[in-house]
Amino acid sequence: MTPTLVRHHPHDPNTASAPATDAGARARDWAEIQERMLVPLYEAAYERLEVGSATRLLGLGCGSGLALLIAASRGAQVTGVEADPDRVSLARERLLADAPRSGSSTEDTPDQPTRLYEGASAEVCDGSAPAYNLVTAFEPLGCASGDSEGLAVALESAIPLAERGSAVVLAGWGPPERCATSAVLRVASRLTETLRATGGRGWRPARRDDLEDVASRAGLKPDGSGRVACPFGYADMDSAVRGLLSTGLFDAAVRATDPAQVEKELTEALHPHVRGDGTVWMSNVFRYLIARRP
Predict the structure, then answer these.
(1) pLDDT tens digits, 189-211
(2) How many other CB atoms sit within 10 Å of the CB of residue 269?
(3) Which of 227, 225, 81, 230 is CA-nearest to residue 167?
(4) Total domains in the fold of the chain
(5) Which residue intervals make up region (Disordered) (predicted)?
(6) String of DSSP letters for 195-249
(7) What crossing angle do the helices spanning 66-73 and 39-48 adopt, rounded to 10°?
(8) pTM assigned to the model
(9) If we measure between CA atoms, which residue out of 64, 251, 242, 229 comes closest to residue 146?
(10) Residue 167 domain-assigned?
(11) Is 103 inside a domain boundary?
């Protein structure tokens, strides 16, 4: 069964130019606009690993739950961990419509084996679930300074919860020359020069060995990789701006300048990608690495 993706409905045109600075609004923009851009990546990894009813999946940085929903539709039992409380709430709406919306975790029941936890690492999991045989980290590496270090810490807490030999899937941006969005993300790099000079974290280009380096630091053994086309397509400029801002990749730029400046320069960078019908389209290639727990 293919899950239904939520279609974004444009915001009021009178307020469309205002960046989504409210955390709840940004999480909603992520769920309704941006998260679906990586569906080809999720599906490619699941198909290669034959995700199905025998799969017990732990998703790190599960966002608002779309990747978990796709795995669950294939019969997998899924557990998600996400640091953003607003995204966790949206994941509960998608996966646990009848579950409580508050609290740091959602316990499973005989009818609903799905679990969702709010936190930055798998340490928040209660440990009563059977050992996982698949761990995924689909938030793409390579664009945010320090993201490799953060994932390495998350993996340290997750790997002990998985069976030996279990697959761990890491995802990352492909080569900048094959990702049209890279040119747009450079806006964040330019605007965060001052922040970086004072020790802050901003955007950086993806590196060829990002995924392999993290796997090595986590003590994992590479067991295959792949590349997947994940074009970013938006109904209009407003959707494109809101979707990209919801990724968090421009947060440092907002801190270094101001939201209006970031939105203005982001809009200018997106203009070359506007089609005649007003839609915005950028071709991208993402990588995934499959590694194994020894």
Answers:
(1) 787 765 444 444 555 666 778 89
(2) 18
(3) 225
(4) 1
(5) 1-26
(6) HHHTT---B----TTHHHHHHHHTT-EEEEEEEEE--EEESSHHHHHHHHHTTST
(7) 40
(8) 0.85
(9) 251
(10) yes
(11) yes
